[in-house]
Amino acid sequence: MAITNGREQEARSPQRGDRGSCAGVGSTQPQPYSLGASDAEMARLDAQADSIAAATAVLLRSAGIAPGMRVLDLGTGLGHVAFQLTGLVGPAGSVLGIDQAEPMLTAAEQRRLAAGVENVHFA
């Protein structure tokens, strides 16, 4: 049982092929990013990241991210948060961005190379 908003709900284990909140749970195959990796989708993600960049920076600082830390960014996508983190961890720290969507990782790595950022890696 799980309690949500004061009410009990019966929890069930994800079944193979379920499309719940955890993509690919019970599957051995990586699930593609549900909204795709088209140029239009990447532009939408860029615009979204730009619109929340200030709030993201506040959140990351509030989380205690500091120089010299090693930070893992799960679901990094195009690397927007990972790149913000590089400024907080500084040259003595590092960031590893992980994502299951290969086109997003490729784009993030291209952006890393173009920017000359050395303390972030994508896998």
Give a written overview of the molecule.
The protein has 123 residues and is of the alpha/beta class. It has a domain of 86 residues: Vaccinia Virus protein VP39 (Rossmann fold), CATH 3.40.50.150. It has 3 helices and 5 strands, in the order ββαβαβαβ. It is globular, with a radius of gyration of 17 Å. The chain has a 3-stranded parallel beta sheet. A two-stranded antiparallel sheet has the order 1-2. The longest helix is centred in the middle third of the chain and has 24 residues. 39% of the residues lie in helices and 15% in strands. The N terminus is likely disordered. Helix 1 runs parallel beside helix 2. Helix 2 links the parallel strand 3 and strand 4.
What characteristics describe this protein?
123 residues; alpha/beta; Rossmann fold; 5 strands; 15% strand; globular
Alpha-carbon distance between the two ends: 36 Å
Largest sheet: 3 strands, parallel
Q: CATH topology of the domain at 37-122, what is it called? A: Rossmann fold
The helical percent reads: 25-40%
Instruction: Determine the strand fraction and express it as a percent band.
Output: 15-25%
Whole-number average pLDDT?
82
| Order of helical and strand elements | EEHEHEHE
Q: What is the β-strand count?
A: 5
Architecture (CATH level 2) name of the domain at 37-122: 3-Layer(aba) Sandwich
In short:
The chain is an alpha/beta fold. It has helices at residues 39-62, 80-89, 102-115; strands at residues 2-4, 7-9, 70-74, 94-98, 120-122.
Chain-wise SSE layout:
Blueprint: E1 2-4, E2 7-9, H1 39-62, E3 70-74, H2 80-89, E4 94-98, H3 102-115, E5 120-122
